[in-house]
Amino acid sequence: MANFMEFKVDANKSLHLNVENVYRVGLAANTPTDADVLFYYNVASADGTDVWAVNVKLASAISQKSADDLDALVKRVNQSPGGIIKASEKLEDDLYLSATTPFAVASTAQPS
Amino acid sequence: MQNGIIVPLKGGFITGAIGPAATDTQLDISNMTFQANGTPSLAAIGGSGTGAVATVTISGGSKTATTLTFTAGTGYKVGDVLTIDGNTTNFTGSIVLTVIEEDLLGDESEGFINSPSSGFWNCVIPAESGNYNLTKISQIESDHERLWSIVTSGGDAGNHKDIAICFDKAIVKACQKPNQNITVTGLPVGVEIISVDLS
């Protein structure tokens, strides 16, 4: 059974990301804040060491601390089979997914 | 045993011609009597859908080359039996069509999105402004990503996220219990699903 993180699309609607195999969450850019948050999956994406990652695009930037908070939420929900956890537990209640391409899946190098 | 998502399809007909009757056994012309070549547009009666209208192409001076090209109709299923009564000008009697998978958009009455045997669904990707009628479900497996492509009609800037949310809800539900199939429901008014393909 999969575990999901729920992201708001607007005040009343949401989309879910399957985070069952996610081992790390971090900002896409090496900057203090970023609207792109990478969820790294422990699933090989190529012959090398690359893995699959989902770029969760938010409507506005969050801090490195907020990304760490999301990481903690992932670890928490993955202790509950079939669980769903709301990203809004740690993010601003009115922080929504980007209106354009909220999820983008890509093969990526593992984070350092 | 696995989980899946059942996707009701539009049940519309393909745009291509069905027939000819001489070789296409799903077209029964035994009660049809040729009168004249022509291409009348006639309603088809029966079956589980509504609004079927077909252009009946009658050529070659006999009934054997007759084909049907549907221009309207939704909600039809494999096995439906449709009857097209003659217009007297081109033919009398009737033509009977027994609907098969190849006649329907999407090749079937309902699509099925099953969970991968060695991977997982990870998210629904809403349609984008370039094409509001193409919603995708990302499926991650070792070494490759697969995308379920869901082609709809009626998608637009105002409802494309709602379409994605319907599939999102179905995925979440299907993943909550083992061996559970969930039917997609709640599509916005005017939105119909044409086809589901794994690419």
What would you note in describing this structure?
The complex is a heterodimer of chains A (112) and B (199). With 112 residues, chain A is mainly β. Chain A is globular. In chain A, the strands form 2 sheets. Chain A has a 4-stranded antiparallel β-sheet. Chain A starts with a strand and ends with a strand. Chain A has 1 helix and 7 strands. Chain B is mainly beta and 199 residues long. Chain B is 9% helix and 41% strand. Chain B contains 1 helix and 14 strands, in the order ββββββββββββαββ. In chain B, strand 4 and strand 5 form a beta hairpin. The relative contact order of chain B is 0.22. Chains A and B meet through strand 2, strand 4 and strand 7 of A and strand 10, strand 11 and helix 1 of B.
- Mean pLDDT score of chain A: 94
> How does the helix and strand content of chain B classify structurally?
mainly beta
Terminal-residue CA separation of chain A:
30 Å
Task: Give a count of the beta strands of chain B, DSSP E runs of length 2 or more.
Answer: 14
Order of helical and strand elements of chain B: EEEEEEEEEEEEHEE
Strand percentage of chain A = 35-45%
What value does the average pLDDT of chain B take? 93
The poorly predicted ranges of chain A are: none
Query: How many individual helices of chain B?
Result: 1
Gyration radius of chain B, in Å: 20 Å
Structural class of chain A comes to mainly beta
For the largest beta-sheet of chain A, the strand count, sense and barrel status come to:
4 strands, antiparallel
